[in-house]
Amino acid sequence: MLRKEHPRRRFECGESAVDTWLRTKALQHQQKHLSATKVLVDPAGAIAGFYTLATGQVDFGDLPAAVARKLPRRALPVAVLAWLGVSVDCHGQGLGTRLLAQALCDCVEAGKTFAFVAVILDCVSDAAKAFYERWDFAELPGHPHLYLGTAHLQAMMEGE
């Protein structure tokens, strides 16, 4: 978990919004129990990468029919992959993939206690969108979010 002593101010991933989030808001949101940020620290103690998870809701009508089938017609709980960043010093080493895999594993674990119908996220760039689409995230019709339904997530975790 992110701690005060982690060198957040030195983190740079190449996306200013992601850098600013980690530097100025991640710890405060974690302390307020709004989100949880996990960091990957390199041998020198620098933050090599991080991801932030939170919970949220999505309106039943916003979900694709395949996901919404047999669900109550109301606001539904979702896991939110709020942020993910890899230090520019570590680009090209597969850390983004490893961090995303761990974030999704964390969602599956959390889902054993706090149920949700999908993992959603917003993309900061077209490159980020392409990255998540390789993991089978799909566009949420009419919204800027991408989503991964829990049935698909579970199948991924079981290797299907």
Structural category is alpha+beta
Q: Please outline the major beta sheet.
A: 6 strands, mixed
Radius of gyration: 16 Å
End-to-end gap:
30 Å
Textual characterization of the structure:
This protein has 160 residues and is an alpha+beta fold. It has one domain (8-157): Gcn5-related N-acetyltransferase (GNAT) (Aminopeptidase). 33% of the residues lie in helices and 27% in strands. The protein contains five helices and six strands, in the order H-E-E-H-E-H-E-H-E-E-H. It has a six-stranded mixed beta sheet with strand order 1-2-3-4-6-5, with helices on both faces. A hairpin with a 5-residue loop joins strand 5 and strand 6 (145-149). The protein is globular and about 50 Å long. The two termini are 30 Å apart. The mean pLDDT is 94.
Q: What can be said about this structure in brief?
A:
33% of the residues lie in helices and 27% in strands.
Keywords:
5 helices, 6 strands, 6-stranded mixed β-sheet, 160 residues, alpha+beta
Write the layout of secondary structure elements.
Layout: H1 16-31, E1 36-41, E2 47-59, H2 65-68, E3 75-86, H3 95-111, E4 118-122, H4 126-133, E5 138-139, E6 145-149, H5 150-157
Parallel strand pairs: 3-4
Antiparallel strand pairs: 1-2, 2-3, 4-6, 5-6
